[in-house]
Amino acid sequence: MNHAQKASAFIRDETRTDWHNRAVWHLRQKRDLGAGSVPEWEELRNLASAIKTHTLSNLDDYLTRFEEKAAANGVHVHWAATAEDHNRIVHGILTDHGVQKLVKSKSMLTEDCHLNPYLEARGIEVIDTDLGERIIQMRHEPPSHIVAPAIHIRKEEVGELFHKELGTDAGASDPKYLTEAARGHLREHFLSSTAALTGVNFAIAETGGVVVCTNEGNADMGVHLHGLQIHCMGIEKIIPRAADLGVFIRLLARSATGQPSTIYTSHYHRPKSGGAMHIVIVDNGRTEHLGRADFRNSLKCIRCGACMNTCPIYRRSGGYSYGHTVPGPIGSILTPGIDMKKFSDLPFASTLCGSCSDVCPVKIDIHEQLYKWRQVIAEAGHLPASKRWSMKVAGKVLARSGRYDFFGKMARMALRILPRFMVYNRFNPWGKARELPAAPKQSFKEWFKQQNQQP
Amino acid sequence: MKVALFIPCYIDQFYPRVGIATLELLQKLGCQVIYPEGQTCCGQPMANSGCEADARDTYQHFIQTFGGFDYIVAPSGSCTYHVRHHYNVIEQTESVRHIRQRTLDLSEFLLDVLKVDHLEARFPYKVGLHQSCHGLRGLRLGKSSERMEGGPSRIHALLGMVSDLDLVDLDSVDECCGFGGTFAIAEAAVSAKMGKDRLADHLRHGAEVITAGDMSCLMHLEGLIRRNNLPIRAMHLAEILNTNETRP
């Protein structure tokens, strides 16, 4: 199924669609309040964008500096060219330490690399410790949003799930009660595991440290408990200096949820005494993407999810309609670089309204890239035949005024004289929910000519 | 000042009344307007569908048709945005550069060139303004709700010059209507749902008329209004600025 078909299926339950729309829009409203509280918001966006541009232009240099600093701090740095390499490296580290159970705090990268099934197939138990992530892990589902992975699930459904999995009271849906239950459940897993893995929000070249932002403190909980800590990051997570961090911290949580910052901003610089700290730096297609001049800007993304929250299509089609770990507008410009044919529908799942670009804290020109991907996808021959041919014909008709005038007149006449069933049928998707415009006898051009003929 | 009127294809074919209102309004304001009869379309339908290659001949036709004018005025933020922003893929001759700079949306032309500060217009109705995206975020006709800075809204300024017009507040001040060109067909379900939600916002706030700087958004919304017999009608901004109605 393509995006349009999945979206259409999602919308069939209109009450749920409306609920999903409201839940996600609520994040955008909170973001507006958060952003509005910073007088220099637009200046911060410019600054963040410029820092990222600079860093991406000197990425090799900053990555090497980062590696040197981290190594000097006693951290083991690994390089993974692909998702497979990443999974193998993580598995190797865990095997070396005899780990049989791992606690993980939120990491879209490991989702993207499908680390959990890889480790589980090799006998290692993985527990996601972010509440939303844990909920979808129990439901055997992927995340539907990068910041709020379980935003598509209602609290009543969480109640049912926890009743089945954790033995909470039947019918309970009070968030506080359910969260308390999850907390108790997760504490047991924190204590019975022997290693912690986290994603990375920012990696600082100057210090060789990594920074992880969470609201639940689950990254710290795992890292502080265990001797072995692993942090997995994409190459684009680098920022040059510790001083740059403030720019991004001020933007990230405000853009995501409207909070001034996440509750926890955890800095990891070196292993605990007697412990081990590993950082896995992953490419997995990012270098190739960096080579695409029109699209490299998308690597500036700090994964705040604001473009999803603002997107009127995402809110009404749900994260799963995009078929990728990173959905929504940013997903739609990243995925064609991964598999253009498979994701060729995503750049078209947009009205090009531009709200995503305006909300983006690092000023990625998302809707411009959607437009450009459309051109690349058409050029590569991945458009549906109906669209390809109708556009070819439209191009021929609209380039000559004689043809345009003639076909315009014919179309209007047809709309006026054809019986309704000939116009409104399964070949007319417009007409399924909408009327076509009433076709006037005279076009503006015909009216204008008539006016000017009269003396 | 030589001013050309560009009436986008779908307005020409389906909403001649909007073209007439635009022409009359400009003439009322003392503007000599020329309507080049060879005009067709800006090429956006093909380009937004990924078929820029199929749009190039239409771009060239537009350039030939609209050469030699001081300004080209269109009652559409979207088509104006397309010419200004996306005609970068053809050879940038002096004529192309001139046309890209001088193609203006009606509201820009009225306020920035003609410096209109009052209008002889009366429209005694409750009006909801739909902020068309390409005008708002493409041409920056006003400040989008995402941005924390930006200039005053041109369309609000113009509606403010209309006597007795009661502009209603909305919950979502600038959410997309869901038209999006071929999106309306390729993603018909989401498109219709977006339009339905937009209209509900206007209806909830008592709007009797929904207006916009782009008739394409209104074509989509009007299609939903007529199918569902909703108690609201769609009128282009130019129609309201050109009217002198008293309430029946």
Describe the structure in brief.
The complex is a heterodimer of chains A (455) and B (248). With 455 residues, chain A is of the alpha/beta class.
- In one word, what is the shape of chain B? globular
Largest interface: A-B, 73 and 79 residues
Q: Outline of chain A, from the CA principal axes?
A: globular
N→C terminal distance of chain B: 39 Å
Radius of gyration of chain A: 26 Å
Number of helices of chain B: 13
What is the makeup of the main sheet of chain A? 6 strands, parallel
- Uncertain stretches of 5 or more adjacent residues of chain B: none
Distance between the termini of chain A: 61 Å
Strand adjacency order, main sheet of chain B: 2-1-3-4
Q: What's the count of strands of chain A? A: 10
Helix content of chain A: 40-55%
The helix count of chain A comes to 23
| Average pLDDT level of chain A | 97
What does this structure look like?
With 455 residues, chain A is α/β, with parallel strands linked by helices. In chain A, 54% of the residues lie in helices and 10% in strands. Chain A has helices at residues 3-11, 14-36, 41-57, 59-72, 83-96, 108-112, 115-121, 131-138, 155-166, 175-192, 218-225, 242-256, 286-290, 306-310, 312-317, 328-338, 355-359, 366-379, 385-398, 401-417, 420-423, 430-433, 444-453; strands at residues 76-80, 101-104, 125-128, 195-198, 202-204, 209-214, 228-234, 238-239, 264-268, 276-282. In chain A, strands 1-10-7-4-2-3 form a 6-stranded parallel sheet, with helices on both faces. In chain A, helix 9 crosses helix 10. Chain A is globular, with a radius of gyration of 26 Å. Chain A starts with a helix and ends with a helix. The model of chain A has no long low-confidence stretch (mean pLDDT 97). Chain B is of the alpha/beta class. In chain B, helix 11 (188-204) crosses helix 12. Chain B contains 13 helices and 8 strands. In chain B, 47% of the residues lie in helices and 11% in strands. In chain B, helix 12 links the parallel strand 7 (209-212) and strand 8. In chain B, the strands form 2 sheets. A 4-stranded parallel sheet of chain B has the order 2-1-3-4, sandwiched between helices. A 4-stranded parallel sheet of chain B has the order 6-5-7-8. Chain B starts with a strand and ends in a 7-residue tail after the last helix. Chain B has helices at residues 9-14, 16-28, 44-48, 52-65, 77-86, 94-102, 106-113, 133-138, 154-159, 183-186, 188-204, 215-228, 237-241, and strands at 3-5, 33-34, 71-74, 103-105, 126-130, 166-167, 209-212, 233-236. The interface between A and B is large, with 73 and 79 residues.
